[in-house]
Amino acid sequence: MNATLLPEAVADRFHLPPGAIYLKSHSVGCQPRAAEAALRDRLLAPWREAGEAWPHWLSAIDEWRAALGRLIEVEARDICPATNVSAALSRYISALGQATERRTILLAPSAFPTIGYVASGLAAAGWTTRYLPDDADVRDAASWRAALAEDVALVVAMHVSSNSGALADLAAVSAVARAAGARCIADCAQSVGVVPVTPAEWGVDAVLGTSVKWLCGGPGAAWIWVAPHDRVALAPMERGWWSHEYPFEMNIRDFRYAPDARRWWGGTPDVAPFILSAAGIGEIAAIGIDRIQAHNRTLQAMLRDALEPLTPQWRWPQGAIGGTLCIDTGTDQPRVAAAFAARDIGVDFRGPIVRLSFHAYNGVADVEAAVAAFA
């Protein structure tokens, strides 16, 4: 057994689709077995027994913030829950508009579409969206440097690109943004849980993330981390009573921003997604991100070693990638899709590009099944 592979027993911590091979953690991570009991004990039981259960629920969200903070090595007070990445980014930009006269947002055309939708939707507020050239290497800080100008307020960089799996050097991208007088926000939706996410080391100004993918936490539990230097410097225009320093003070004429990242929170929060997310974070932290990444890379290498020599007509990823193998199968796509479907192997496609991901609960047998399907 390869020493970098996780024990097969790790898979027992998760519910896996019966009778299938699941390679779509880049879309939705499998449910931890601990999630159901956590939801019952932390949400339903206090609600049933206390009625007005906010003290219990807020405690659960505080524990979620603390667990996520430990995972990505930041202070919990700089993390704010969000419904999704779109909402978190929108709130961030609403604050940024008051902090700078610049009005251009720079991103790559390979960014997840919601980033572009949010950015372009702000045209009425005076914002302009600028894209890197289609052929630019998003991993190379020089690509970003070449596109930066004195009108750029914000660089939005993908830690891992969803269409290619490209793994960016965020420390370098952040450095060129800072040198040009722009802020840099990192979208870590496709990396957190399988690749180490270290915002403080990168020097970025903010991080967006979600629990639905590699963190195995389900939908509805996203977040924004805002760097300590902007803890009180930015004041989001999109706010609600949970953005208040004391939400239950209830003085309509006296709004005061929370002194930490809760100022980004907005209105009444959902609770269940963060209880479920905490269960996922707990499992990922217990296994260890470094071990998950090593396991993932070993399985990727096994698949690639077996298949790349047999598929010279396909375009395999080059350079650093995250947890997802994105392989351009070209005109073979219909045949490849049919082969996976016939064997009940869960992958997905972006055009001719097949995306498949090996998580902690996948193993050598899954690689062998994928190789058989491809071959």
Summary keywords:
seven-stranded mixed sheet, 375 residues, single chain, Aspartate Aminotransferase, domain 2, 15% strand, alpha/beta, Aspartate Aminotransferase, domain 1
Description:
This protein has 375 residues and is α/β, with parallel strands linked by helices. It has helices at residues 35-50, 54-72, 85-96, 113-120, 141-147, 170-179, 199-202, 272-287, 289-307, 333-342, 364-374; strands at residues 14-15, 21-22, 31-32, 79-82, 104-107, 128-131, 152-158, 183-187, 206-210, 222-226, 324-328, 345-346, 348-350, 353-357. It folds into 2 domains: 8-23 and 288-374, Aspartate Aminotransferase, domain 1, CATH 3.90.1150; 36-285, 3-Layer(aba) Sandwich (Aspartate Aminotransferase, domain 2). The protein contains 11 helices and 14 strands. Strand 7 (152-158), helix 6 and strand 8 form a beta-alpha-beta unit. The two termini are 24 Å apart.
Summarize the amount of helix as a percent range. 25-40%
* CATH architecture assignment name of the largest domain: 3-Layer(aba) Sandwich
How do the strands line up in the largest sheet?
4-10-9-8-7-5-6
**Head-to-tail CA distance between termini:** 24 Å
The CATH topology of the largest domain: Aspartate Aminotransferase, domain 2
Arithmetic mean pLDDT? 96
- The CATH class label of the largest domain is Alpha Beta
Shape: globular
Strand proportion, as a percent range, falls in 5-15%
Sheet with the most strands, sense and barrel status:
7 strands, mixed
Count the beta strands: 14
Q: List unreliable stretches of 5+ residues.
A: none
SS summary, helix count: 11
Rg (CA only): 21 Å
